[in-house]
Amino acid sequence: MQEESYAEKCRVLREEVRMMFNKIENEVDQLEFIDVIQRLGVAYHFSNEIRNILDIIYNNQTSKLEKNLHATALKFRLLRQHHYDISTDVFDSFQDELSGFKKDQILDVEGVEGILSMYEASFHSFEDETILDEARDFTSKFLKDFLNQNGDSHLSLQISHALELPLHWRVPRWEASCFINIYEKQQNKNDVLLHFAKLDFNILQSVYQEELKYTSRWWKETEIGEKLRFVRDRFVENFIWNVGMSFNPEFEYFRKVLTKANALITIIDDVYDVYGTLEELELFTEAIERWDLNAIDSLPDYMQICYQTLYNYVNEVEFEMLNKTGYSIAPYLKREWAGLCKVYMTEAKWYHSGYTPSFEEYIENAWISISAPLMLIHAYFVIPNSFKVEDLHLLEENSDMIRYSAMILRLANDLGTLSTLTLFLYFSF
């Protein structure tokens, strides 16, 4: 009953906020409103309204923002974020061709708020957009200096938050939690919007809690955590990772499926990296490639648990998606799991033989072993209304989009787990 009351209150507040879109006519106010809506984590309720406003702003050839750095940078960031084709030429009036950004000009026009907006916009650069690279260097230094001299203001709180991690790099759901606290302290805050954001955040938290209960029961029922003491128990981390990937309530099934997939990846990775002998790993890899439950008899007990759990998981997803779409996705899922185990096997052979691969050999294997292709294929199928049967031939081979996305994840992961010196030494020999 209480949940229904919260849902009704949320619905009423949502419609009040929706009406606000029609009352804001000034372009700068519209941009700032969209920015706040997004950072509070409630933009998913107003996709059409946001798109309509950005369409108008993008097509407005008479915009008078060229002398307002804050508004220009905010406009640039929002349009780039929403995939509009906007050029860095909008910053020409703030740049001197010979000396880079005119420090005095920027400070006279917009002040610190403009610098902060330019800093955030600079992280939306494409290759060879040197104007944004220069802007990032200048604004970062300026904001750090400002923070050292003005540490107690509300603006300093926003600057400190931005310097810790730029908005473009933040996970939207975690940003919502942080920004609600920041926005609450603003003098010009919109109380209705703030109330709605808090209520919506709490409702979604309750949704995630129920999902976590469901997936935790599944994890406990597998008994893997109890029987395989050598594997990492990172189940809650896996769930949080998937909330970060897609927090919208309609992606509940996506989060459940990918949380289980992440848990299984961690388990199998530990089998290959930590526990299995080379002979046992060969048997396991062959069993996954065969995808025959009878193959389980050839495996040691601890591998039988892993194999059975993975086998049941894929069949469970296949059954659910067959009911929803009428199409069998099992062949694609089996292929990805077999491919992952094969590259794990390659890494195990390298380790056991003491072989050091070249960078080319390493990355050709590692972009798959990071498990991004497997996760992306799973996501493609289980996100609502995401796939079309006529497009499935594109999955027969890993596309460049999947390959390069996986490489980015692999290299970022390696940089996060190895020291710079270790990487230098590894790839120098």
Distance between the termini: 66 Å
- Oligomeric organization of the protein chains: single chain
Task: Report mean pLDDT, rounded to a whole number.
Answer: 88
Order of helices and strands: HHHHEEHHHHHHHHHHHHHHHH
- Find the count of extended strands (DSSP E, 2+ residues): 2
Major sheet: 2 strands, antiparallel
Rg (CA only): 25 Å
CATH C-level class of the largest domain is Mainly Alpha
The total tally of domains equals 2
CATH level 4 superfamily of the largest domain = Farnesyl Diphosphate Synthase
Number of helices: 20
Strands in their spatial order, largest beta sheet = 1-2
How would you describe what is shown here?
With 429 residues, the chain is mainly alpha-helical. It has two domains: 2-189, Glycosyltransferase (Alpha/alpha barrel); 223-428, Farnesyl Diphosphate Synthase, CATH 1.10.600.10. It is 71% helix and 1% strand. It is built from 20 helices and two strands. The chain has helices spanning 2-23, 27-39, 47-59, 69-81, 103-109, 111-121, 130-149, 154-164, 172-184, 191-222, 224-227, 235-245, 252-275, 278-290, 301-325, 330-353, 359-369, 372-382, 400-417, 420-428, and strands at residues 95-96, 100-101. A two-stranded antiparallel sheet has the order 1-2. Strand 1 and strand 2 form a beta hairpin. Helix 2 (27-39) runs antiparallel to helix 3 (47-59), helix 10 (191-222) crosses helix 12 and helix 16 (330-353) runs antiparallel to helix 18. The longest helix has 32 residues, at 191-222. The chain is globular.
